[in-house]
Write a structure and sequence with these properties.
Number of domains: 2
Largest sheet: 6 strands, mixed
CATH topology of the largest domain: Rossmann fold
CATH class of the largest domain: Alpha Beta
Distance between the termini: 32 Å
Shape: globular
Order of helices and strands: EEEHEEHEHHHEHEHEEH
CATH superfamily of the largest domain: P-loop containing nucleotide triphosphate hydrolases
Radius of gyration: 18 Å
Strand content: 25-35%
Number of strands: 10
Bound molecules: adenosine-5'-diphosphate, magnesium ion
Number of helices: 8
Length: 235
């Protein structure tokens, strides 16, 4: 469903050029929970920002269901962005809006009728287990609850793909597991393909069926999670 071919990103700055992604190739199938693991600075966030078109690749192609999104612009690009949900390490919630309003926000932007949007928000609150927090403000929520709001918001427009950039890195181990379980159930129940960016092998082990290892801008290994774990244990 997502084919990344020779994706290359060079950042240009006053200090010179920096190669952040070097001919990256990935093949992510529909229904995968696909892990990308690597140390800080390896190029993981650059990769997700290229996939959701927040960053323009220097070279290479990103095919989603056969269509090259690097060639898109205007309305086509906006529509493709809506089919990609995204969550982050620091949640990126709107602090002046309550939980309900945070989740409703992308529906308003997409032009939903207000009543239909309200009904959709109720469904999403139920999905992430926060029906009782609809009127709370983000400042009053735990990290795990904030990430649940972010997940509900990311799913509002029924994306085909959910991109998670270090989504559990700010959470304690128990909360991490509960968020990973929620992501797994979303993958199974809604059929959403999930890309998990992380620096933690335990996150990959917990939910990813496939994984790629990124090191200094390059994919150095990829395959089934079980095979990769055996590989690391053999080292
Ligand atoms: N906008 C930018 N301009 C210049 N260099 C950048 C920019 N964004 C990231 N980098 C550099 O690219 C490398 C990869 O960054 P990033 O993709 O954020 O890695 P990761 O998410 O794996 O920690 C880092 O060395 C970082 O300093
Ligand atoms: Mg990062």
């Amino acid at each position: 469903m997502i084919k990344i071919q020779n994706l290359t990103k060079i950042y240009h700055s006053d200090h010179g050029d920096f190669l952040a992604l070097d001919h990256v190739n990935l093949d992510i199938k529909k229904g995968d929970i696909y892990g990308v693991i690597g140390l800080s600075g390896a190029g993981k966030s650059t990769l997700v920002r290229c996939i959701n078109l927040l960053e323009k690749p220097t070279a290479g192609n990103i095919l989603i269901d056969g269509e090259d999104i690097t060639l898109m612009n205007g309305p086509e690009l906006r529509k493709t962005r809506q089919s990609l949900g995204m969550i982050f390490q620091d949640f990126n919630l709107l602090m002046q809006k309550n939980v309900f309003q945070n989740i409703k926000f992308p529906l308003e932007i997409a032009g939903f009728d207000s009543k239909a949007a309200d009904a959709r928000v109720q469904e999403l609150l139920k999905l992430v287990g926060l029906e009782d927090k609809a009127n709370s403000y983000p400042a009053k929520l735990s990290g795990g609850q904030k990430q649940r709001v972010a997940i509900a918001r990311a799913l509002a427009n029924q994306p085909k793909v959910l991109l998670c950039d270090e989504a559990t890195s700010a959470l304690d181990p128990v909360t991490t597991l509960s968020i990973l379980e929620l992501l797994k159930s979303i993958n199974i129940r809604l059929g959403v393909t999930i890309i998990i960016i992380t620096h933690e092998m335990k996150v990959v082990e917990a939910i990813c069926n496939r994984v790629a290892v990124i090191e200094s801008a390059k994919i150095v290994k990829d395959g089934l999670t079980a095979d990769l774990i055996n590989h690391f244990e053999g080292e």
